[in-house]
Design brief:
The complex is a heterodimer of chains A (453) and B (236). Chain A contains 14 helices and 14 strands. Chain A has helices at 2-15, 18-56, 85-94, 129-133, 147-151, 161-168, 211-218, 255-260, 283-297, 314-356, 358-366, 371-408, 416-442, 446-451; strands spanning 60-65, 69-70, 73-74, 98-107, 111-113, 116-118, 122-126, 139-142, 156-159, 177-180, 183-191, 206-210, 272-277, 308-312. In chain A, strand 2 (69-70) and strand 3 (73-74) form a beta hairpin. A 6-stranded mixed beta sheet of chain B has the order 6-7-8-3-9-10, sandwiched between helices. Chain B has a 4-stranded antiparallel beta sheet with strand order 2-1-4-5, with helices on one face. In chain B, strand 1 and strand 2 (18-30) form a beta hairpin.
Amino acid sequence: MKLYITMKTALNALRRNVLRTLLTTLGIVIGVGAVITMMEIGNGATIAIRKTMASIGANTLVIIPGAANTGGINFGAGSLMTLTPQDADAIVKECPSLASVAPIVRARTQIVYGNRNWSPTYIYGTTPSFLEVREWTELAEGESFDEHDVRNSNRVCLVGQTIVRELFGGRSPLGKEVRIRNVAFKVVGVLKMKGANMMGLDQDDILLAPWTTIKYRVVATSLGSSSQSESATTISSSNNPYVAVSAFLYAVPSATEQASTPQPIRFANVDQILTAARSSSSIPSAIQQITMLLRERHHLKVSSPNDFNVRDMTEITKAMSSTTDMITKLLLCVAMISLVVGGVGIMNIMLVSVTERTREIGLRMAVGAEPGDILRQFLTEAVVICLLGGTMGIILGRTSSYIISSVLHWPTSASIGAIVAAVVVSASVGVIFGFYPAWKASRLNPIEALRYE
Amino acid sequence: MDLIELKDVHKTYYLGEVAVPVLKGVTLSIARRELVALMGASGSGKSTLMNLLGCLDNASSGEYWLDGKEISKLTAKEYARLRNRTIGFVFQSFNLLPRTTALENVMMPLTYSREYLSEQQKRQHAADLLRKVGLADRIDHQQSQLSGGEQQRVAIARSLVNQPSILLADEPTGNLDSRTSKEILQMFQQLNSVDGITIILVTHDQEVAQWAQRIIRIKDGLLEDNSEPVEAGSAT
């Protein structure tokens, strides 16, 4: 009841000078509007930066087989052949923290088109989801190969810009055939330019093909060799045109012979598995899930160490979170300054108002208002101005961030936190900056106040 | 015991180090239902005495008995309550709230009273008072739409809203023409005789003072001895 009367008195007082009230409110409107706009732009920028960072590979996790150790000789990371394409399938199915997974089979060899040849940095046999993992789904030309191509070991490939330049002289390679160790691959798509990675390796110097094709048609000869990319050393040479087909040391068994002495199915391993976590924050849980799943799939005893390694891009992740944090804080600082300016404006106007209404204060005291009543009245006025400004500021902020996002195509995202904070902050600005004038009013001497001209 | 009794009241202001005695031992009593005039030249201590009587200020020394209670040592808060409940003020310059209707002006002191009244009751009460002072058709007019006399009537209605026992009028006719002044003074007289409210008229105008039953004269901080009662209604 008391509160209702105080509110009503405050509103009446504010209504007596609508223009001034509105102008005072404007300071807070702009302040709160700025806070909300900045927060939303900041959020949007954060999301945009995350996306960019993700395309660099910030969320990427690389699963590499462990080191093979035979007779005291360690062959280094990746020398075990324990990762399988089935592992990749299981990971994408059973690890909720992961967005996508692509197995990778590497080859290092020469590719030929017409009278030109080139040795790309990367020849990757993979699945179409490789492009998702690397955030590379937009192609410059053509289309990606699909799951069907992977299943059928189709001889199709995607090439990067460097290969287009070096092998095709910059002309469109779509539909052309490149030969990799005498296996003809049809170019179905061209990747967009990505540039060098952080280690300075040219990421556009890449050829992507279904992993089955690379595995069984290109590096089939090197199956069983302990190192993965060394096959490139046995560069196809003119004196062995059938290098893609393993040399037959024995007579081809007939169908009956095959049926009676079944050969063990070829164990297909992959050189690494590339995965993308859903977000940078889910990387730790993703690592945990992968580790648990692969240990189970590889039937590892509790005591035995992992036969694989999961690597993340800690450096990039750190850089990303510190960048986005800084942007948000910076924007918030700017917005807070405008709120403080708005608050000082309120204090200013409230002081003027107290001086202007000295006689009114004197009168109210004469008819029985206690100092506390006067303090409450002026404080309420300040808070009402601020809450009014806060409400209008929220509308302004939402509107302007909407306009910015639709006109400038900046990514913005609504933030409930920002709105709540704006209301709380504007009310506190009212209390903080309204207190001094209100206190001053309550300390007036009624006799002098009544005599004030 | 009379409604108001002052016993040897002193009031001294301090301008820095210099003490300025304004009231130098005022002893005074005003009975219930009395209509008195307080007269004095400017600088005589008239305003100071009025502020003391109106509980706006407290004495440096001496006793102030109001309605049987010694109140010279109360706190600011208790004074505020006394002003709200017991004393009504009417000022020379009316002091209505700007851009506020007559009704809201009259209702204003109720905001600070400790009794619970619903909004409806408050409006009713204030409107009754406005009718009583002859402003039935001016209830929703704003301060700026009222003439001086009408504003003073609103101010009187406002001073009566908490049913005070004392009405303190500081030069109530100072800003009014003679015809309106007379109306206002007649109203005071009626409030005094019909409603039994004790009224203290502070004035320097002999003609206004003639409306009172008794004139209290103050000079240089002391009451003059010739404070004789005048015949009620002798002025015409």
